[in-house]
Design goal:
heterodimer; A: about 120 residues; mainly beta; seven-stranded mixed beta sheet; four-stranded antiparallel beta sheet; globular; B: about 110 residues
C-alpha cells in the first residue's frame, strides 16, 4: 500500500492557461473522488468515479473543469482558461469496494496547490 | 443547503485532558455515513473514525470516540488524553445520496496547550 499520490504538488500558472493534475489512487481501490479546498474551508466535493465511470458531478465543476479516469486507474483533472478564483488546493481520494459507497473510508492524497496569477 | 455544521472555529485543550468537537448534520437520506478527518499543518487529510447511520453503538478508535445522537443529528468527536500532536484542523464529513456525494464541514482548529 503506497498510498494516494498526486502530481504536481504545486503549480503556478498565469490566468487563462490550462493546467492538468494527476492522481494515482491506492491500487485496489475502485472509487475515486476529486475535491477543492480553499483557505480556511473544508474540502468541497467536485466529482466521483466508480471504476472509469463518472457517476456524480458537483455544480462547482464548471464547464472549464473536466475529470477523467481512463481504465479505472489514475485520474486527471484539467482546468481550462484558469481564473484567479481557481487558486486552491485540489485533493483526490480513493476508497475500496465496500457494500456501498457511503460506508467506504476515503484515503486522501497530499494535494496539488494551484496558484493562478 | 449546508449539510454539515461545525460551530467551533477554534478550540483549546490542556494536554492530557479530553476535548469534544461538535458536528451537526442534515440529510433526508435514511442511509448515510459520518466521518472525522484530521488535517495537520502539512495538509494531508487523515481518517480518524467512521459512524454508520444504522450503527447502534458509538464508534471508537483508540483515543477517538464518536458521540452519535441520531435524533439530534449530531456526531461529536471526543478526543481523550489530548497530546501535543493532536493540534490540527478537524473536519466532520458525511456521505449521502448512496455515497455519490460527500460533504465536509468548515472545520475546527484544535490547539493542545502543554
Amino acid at each position: 500500500d503506497t498510498g494516494v499520490s498526486q502530481n504536481p504538488r504545486h503549480k503556478i500558472t498565469k490566468r487563462g492557461q490550462n493546467v492538468t493534475f494527476r492522481c494515482d489512487p491506492i491500487s485496489e481501490h475502485n472509487r475515486f473522488y476529486w475535491y477543492r479546498q480553499t483557505l480556511g474551508q473544508g474540502p468541497e466535493f467536485l466529482t466521483y468515479f466508480q471504476n472509469e465511470a463518472q457517476l456524480e458531478k458537483s455544480r462547482l465543476l464548471s464547464d472549464r473543469f473536466s475529470a477523467e479516469r481512463p481504465k479505472g486507474s489514475f485520474s486527471t483533472l484539467e482546468i481550462q482558461r484558469t481564473e484567479q478564483g481557481d487558486s486552491a488546493m485540489y485533493l483526490c481520494a480513493s476508497s475500496s469496494t465496500g457494500t456501498s459507497a457511503f460506508t467506504d473510508t476515503q484515503y486522501f492524497g497530499p494535494g496539488t496547490r494551484l496558484t493562478v496569477l | 443547503a449546508q449539510k454539515i455544521t461545525q460551530t467551533q472555529p477554534g478550540m483549546f485543550v490542556q494536554e492530557k485532558e479530553a476535548v469534544t468537537l461538535d458536528c451537526t448534520y442534515d440529510t433526508s437520506d435514511p442511509s448515510y455515513g459520518l466521518f472525522w478527518y484530521k488535517q495537520p499543518s502539512s495538509g494531508e487529510m487523515i481518517f480518524l473514525i467512521y459512524q454508520g447511520s444504522y450503527d447502534q453503538q458509538n464508534a471508537t478508535e483508540g483515543r477517538y470516540s464518536l458521540n452519535f445522537q441520531k435524533a439530534r443529528k449530531s456526531a461529536n468527536l471526543v478526543i481523550s488524553a489530548s497530546q501535543l500532536g493532536d493540534s490540527a484542523m478537524y473536519f466532520c464529513a458525511m456521505s449521502a445520496h448512496a455515497g455519490n456525494q460527500f460533504y465536509f464541514g468548515t472545520g475546527t482548529s484544535l490547539t493542545v496547550i502543554p
